[in-house]
Structures are given as C-alpha cells and as structure tokens.
Amino acid sequence: MYAPPVQRLILELGKLPGIGQRTAQRLAFHLLRVDAEEANGLADAIREVKERIGLCEICFNLADEPRCRICQDARRDAELICVVEEPGDVIPIERTHEYRGHYHVLGGALSPIDGVDPEDLKIAELLARVEASDPAVREVVLATNPTTTGEATALHIAAAVRERAPRVAVTRLASGLPVGADLEYADEVTLGKALAGRRAL
Ligand SMILES: [Zn+2]
Known about the structure:
Layout: H1 4-14, H2 21-33, H3 36-52, E1 54-55, E2 62-63, H4 69-72, E3 77-84, H5 90-95, E4 101-105, H6 123-131, E5 139-142, H7 148-164, E6 169-172, H8 188-196, E7 199-200
Parallel strand pairs: 3-4, 3-5, 5-6
Antiparallel strand pairs: 1-2, 6-7
Bound molecules: zinc ion.
Residues 56, 58-59, 61, 67-68, 70-71 line the site of zinc ion.
C-alpha cells in the first residue's frame, strides 16, 4: 500500500507499547511531514541512548558510566537499599525527597504465568549485596508495585533475605498506595507517606 520505507517506519512504530496500527500510521505521517532536522533528532536520540546508556553494575539503574549517579554519591546511605521493579520507579521515589539510601532495580516482577522466574530478575545480585559486609546493609525497603506480581515479588525477596541475612531488616511501603497501580503513577505526597510509614515484613 505504501512505499517500503514508509511501511517499515509504520511497522517499527507499531512495535512500541501502547501504539496500535492507526497511531503508528499517524506518527509515521507526522514524521514525513516535519523537516529532516526534527525527524533526525528523534532518530539520533534513540541511537544515543542505545549507545551510551547501560545498567549500573551495582544497582542496575540506568547509567551512562559503569556506576549510576546514586551509587557514586558518597552522601547517600549505602546501608539502606530500596528495591524497585523498573528504572522508571526510581524517579518518583527520588521526587519525594524522603529517601536518601541506595536502590536495587530488579528488571521486572515475578510472574510464573508469563515465564518470569527469580533467575530472570536481579534477585541473586540483591542477595549478594545484602550478604556483603562492606557496606553492611541494615535495611531492605521493598518498593515493588502494589500489584499481584509486585506483592509476590516482595514476599519472595523478604523470605530470601530473612534466610540469607537474618540481621537485615526487611520493610514494605505502607499501604495507602492505590492497589493495582504502578509506582510510577503515584503522587509524591502519597509515596512519601508510604515510605515514611514503611513497616516490617
Ligand atoms: Zn547504581
């Protein structure tokens, strides 16, 4: 129906989450209409993140160096680790200004139905951090999403930490977060309260 380059663009755009066939077409026609500089800006931005952004070797947050900015920051409390599902979950927690510890990004949540098992997430890496003596972690805050998979992940990690490092406190964000919603959509005040009121698991 369209020239092959246009078809390819529609196909690639349609692979993005939440973009159906119609939206992919609309975006493609938009890109055909704008000037080359603007369209190439998008292409360059995509290429640059793929070339320059990787995962922090300690916490698996996004980083443009071997270690992310938070892991490099000596003013932050390295004995406190907040466990989240995705890199996007770090931002709303940072915005609350309630948290001054480090993070650990799992890369998803446990979901046996979808084939996501413990070894598919950075759980072994978390346990290694928790078992290490320097820094001696004193608390793990489980900030996985208040969804079925997020809760299952929190319970799994809590049991594993208790077994491997019983001296480490395990806490979960206080209720008050909308059940079933993702952390990234929680407002700062609610999330700040949930952090301040975290309870032992
Ligand atoms: Zn890091």
